[in-house]
Amino acid sequence: MKKLRFVQTLATVVLCSAMGVASAAYPERPIRLVVPSGAGGVTDSLARSLAQMLSANIGQQVFVDNRPGASGIIGSQAVATAAPDGYTLLMVFPSHVVNPSLFASIPYDTVKSFSPVSLVSNVSMVFVVSKDSPANTLQEFVDYARKNPGKLNFASVGSGSLGHLGAEIFNSMAETNVVHIPYKGSPQALAALMANEVDMYFVASASSVLPQVRSGRVKALGVSINTRLPVIPTVPTIAETLPAYDVGGWNGILAPAGTPPEVVNFLQQEIAKVVKSDEFAQILKNEGATSVASTPAEFDEVIKKDIQRWAKLLKDLGVKPQ
């Protein structure tokens, strides 16, 4: 009997040790962080900062893999079909929760195909026009656009992007008709604005446009959330001209559905350490963003609520799935 108990105890110790070794082994190789948009935008910038700091903390390289196209669907599908082992992650932005209302068919389930890990940031946009625009204030632009319905254009980084939706909401609230022209990425959209190919652009990264604002190559007329940004405090909010206008976005990390809970929890805890650091907070501040870590459950709730919120908003705007 004593011998049997000894064997059982020894088996338990060996099993627990094996489980500890298996748990401690992750991560044992580099982690790929897929960004479903091109290089140069705010999501790409934040992903690279997060990856660099996360790599230093966990002792394994986290590298960014840009997979742009189809409003984020191409990159998201790559992660949805990846092995659920914690070595392929996805940095998402509002397009993720908007796409179900924009496209009749998506090759994955926006909720069920992923395991939420954590939110990373809340993001504001900057409303800019070219230096040659006759408008020097947001009200002047509204008046100008109303006098030229259908003749002005706005740039975005793609259908369903936060900039696209922010401009459509602006059109609705300002009673204007500025036409959408999507571009491959933020650098291309900003270049088009400076070349007077388009008349306005909602930039999702304050830092990417500040040099052009300070040099006078573009004019910043407003920020999209209802509080001014510390990095550009003299630029008013759009709500100061169009009361109740408040359009912001977020960035967060997803893993493929079925990723082990202990791996998800490890990633969430390590991401939270980065997001809560003063260094990362300063990086976000320069982008016109704020840090916001969350639990997987909290991020899951944000995703589900935003799917419903954007579905109603797009329906009210008359936007139908394509």
Secondary structure blueprint with pairings:
Blueprint lengths: L1 H24 L5 E5 L6 H17 L3 E5 L6 H8 L7 E5 L2 H8 L11 E10 L2 E5 L7 H10 L5 E4 L5 H13 L4 E4 L3 H9 L5 E4 L2 H9 L3 E6 L25 E8 L4 H15 L2 H9 L2 E3 L4 H21 L6
Parallel strand pairs: 1-2, 1-3, 6-7, 6-8
Antiparallel strand pairs: 3-10, 4-10, 4-11, 5-8, 5-9
Just give the CATH class of the largest domain. Answer: Alpha Beta
End-to-end separation? 71 Å
> How many discrete domains?
2
What is the H level of CATH, i.e. the homologous superfamily of the largest domain?
Answer: Bordetella uptake gene, domain 1
CATH topology of the largest domain: D-Maltodextrin-Binding Protein, domain 2
Helix content: 40-55%
Q: Give the rounded overall mean pLDDT.
A: 90
Give me the side-by-side strand order of the main sheet.
Answer: 2-1-3-10-4-11
CATH architect. name of the largest domain? 3-Layer(aba) Sandwich
Instruction: List unreliable stretches of 5+ residues.
Output: 1-23
Based on CA atoms alone, the radius of gyration comes out at 22 Å
Determine the number of helices (DSSP H or I, runs of at least 4 residues). 11
Largest sheet: 6 strands, mixed
Q: What is the overall shape?
A: globular
Number of strands: 11
Order of helices and strands: HEHEHEHEEHEHEHEHEEHHEH
Overall structural class, as computed from helix and strand content, comes to alpha/beta
Work out the strand percent. Answer: 15-25%
